[in-house]
Amino acid sequence: MANLQTNFIGIQSPNPFWLASAPPTDKAYNVNRAFEAGWGGVVWKTLAEAGPPLVNVNGPRYGALLSPDRRLLGFNNIELITDRDLEVNLSEIIQVKRDWPDRALVVSLMVPCNEAAWKSILARVEDTGADGLELNFGCPHGMSERGMGSAVGQVPEYIEMVTQWCKHYSRLPVIVKLTPNITDIRIPARAARRGGADAVSLINTINSIMGVDPYSLTMLPSTGGLGSHGGYCGPAVKPIALNMVAEIARDPQTAGLPISGIGGVGNWRDALDYIALGAGTVQVCTAAMVYGFKIVQEMKSGLSDYMDEMGFTSIDDFRGRALPTVTNWSALNLNHVSKAVIDQDSCIACGRCHIACEDTSHQAITAIKDGKRHFEVKEDECVGCNLCTLVCPVPECITLRSLAPGEKDLRTGRIVSDKHEDWSTHANNPMRVSV
Ligand SMILES: Cc1cc2nc3c(=O)[nH]c(=O)nc-3n(C[C@H](O)[C@H](O)[C@H](O)COP(=O)(O)O)c2cc1C
Ligand code: SF4
Ligand code: SF4
């Protein structure tokens, strides 16, 4: 069985699956049960400075985007950071770390943006025996209105400054958790690196409103008739997070900076996507909240089976392996040609591909042949856009075939070239580079 052991910025964990800072890691009761289920690590629910505990709303703090069969696609929350007393949290962290020495225990922090506040809490956390710190510069609701969370994460100078304080006042490794509510994720990641961060983690949640009640015409979810934008997460955000992870991993200024990938991880395949794009660990919140802690068992066995099948003996064997395949549009080969192919044996003649292609693509799929329903690709019209393969309800019934060099593209009448030609050198580009 493949070895899932992970060393992330010096923090050891038996597998790369960590629970993200959120309700699943809110208290010792949860974290003990999560470790019993097999999680490799946790990032404790974000701690606040000492003082009167924060107060959450006593109404619907969660909202969801559900598929028609009620599977959760996206999740939204207006929960604050921990609303439990600092002393209680710290004593539970001490106990949990003592009881589970082989698991990663990282403590998430969010205190006001002044040096004294950070200095004071850093010393307290170091005394717990925790393995690392995660700086929550990401929460987009509630705390940001008080000048914390994403209010810090949206100002690179603040990120750099607070990270420097943490590196100065603590010996623990520092992970900076980034907000996706920003135009270019590379900017805050560079600031974190300048501040001395050992790693970044991303994404925190995306600003969102779930909808409106059609009869009361109030936003949803609402607390007694008023709502507030909340943080969006769950399966729907994974592609956004993956792009941000890849952007940081391939940016020359942050390349090599360790990354903990977060957003929509629900199974081993999701984790593989993050690791292949450069993440060293993944963190999970929504999936654990919806399906429970035991989902980690499938994650571990699935990833381990995959690694055995591929001949990988460690996570590092495939970490970042997909990165060289991520490029800019301008570097894509415009001489490449694909055509859709329909497998007539598995086609159930539902007609969805025809409707999609006929109404919104290239009118390249038949509906009737010899007076009967028949769905076949017209290669002289198909541009290989992939829409039909995505709408077909039968897996693998429609596939895309790459034309080999020397074959004729029936749509353009051109012979497919074996030469790579992208937009930077294309004849139609007035700004082309001569080669
Ligand atoms: C209810 C809820 C509370 C959260 N609280 C925190 C928090 O206290 N600190 C933090 O850094 N992130 C918090 N998050 C964000 C998660 O840690 C995570 O970044 C985000 O949910 C994306 O992961 P997911 O798609 O697996 O849920 C919270 C998320 C949810 C849903
Ligand atoms: S790939 Fe696009 S153009 Fe070709 S048949 Fe499918 S939907 Fe039509
Ligand atoms: S969508 Fe798929 S199953 Fe339906 S007609 Fe097209 S190829 Fe056949």
Automatic annotation (TrEMBL):
Pfam families: DHO_dh, Fer4_21. InterPro entries: 4Fe4S_Fe-S-bd, 4Fe4S_Fe_S_CS, Aldolase_TIM, Dihydroorotate_DH_cat. Keywords: Iron, Iron-sulfur, Metal-binding, Oxidoreductase. The keyword Cell membrane does not apply. One of its GO terms (molecular function) is metal ion binding. GO terms for cellular component: cytoplasm. It catalyses: 5,6-dihydrothymine + NAD(+) = thymine + NADH + H(+); 5,6-dihydrouracil + NAD(+) = uracil + NADH + H(+). Its EC number is 1.3.1.1. Residues 338-370, 373-403 form the 4Fe-4S ferredoxin-type domain. Transmembrane segments: none annotated. Heterotetramer of 2 PreA and 2 PreT subunits. Involved in pyrimidine base degradation. Catalyzes physiologically the reduction of uracil to 5,6-dihydrouracil (DHU) by using NADH as a specific cosubstrate. It also catalyzes the reverse reaction and the reduction of thymine to 5,6-dihydrothymine (DHT). Belongs to the dihydropyrimidine dehydrogenase family. This is dihydrouracil dehydrogenase (NAD(+)). It comes from Polaromonas hydrogenivorans. The lineage of its organism: Bacteria, Pseudomonadati, Pseudomonadota, Betaproteobacteria, Burkholderiales. The gene is preA.
